């Protein structure tokens, strides 16, 4: 068991494949921040 084994995490990393032992990490979808134009915006100088 090691780099040549198809069923281990180390073997999946070596081969560059995915499976049950090495699932893909999904990116989280973030909602877009909306800018309100109607609000009073004061600029400090």
From TrEMBL:
Locate the region Disordered.
Answer: 1-27
Q: Which family does it belong to?
A: Belongs to the bacterial ribosomal protein bTHX family.
Per UniProt, the ranges with Basic residues bias are: 1-13
In which organism is this protein found?
Formosa sediminum
InterPro entries annotated for this entry? Ribosomal_bTHX, Ribosomal_bTHX/bTHXc/bTHXm
UniProt-recorded name of the protein: 30S ribosomal protein THX
List GO terms (cellular component aspect). ribonucleoprotein complex; ribosome
**What keywords sit in the KW lines?**
Ribonucleoprotein, Ribosomal protein
- Signal peptide per UniProt: none
Q: Does the keyword Ribonucleoprotein apply?
A: yes
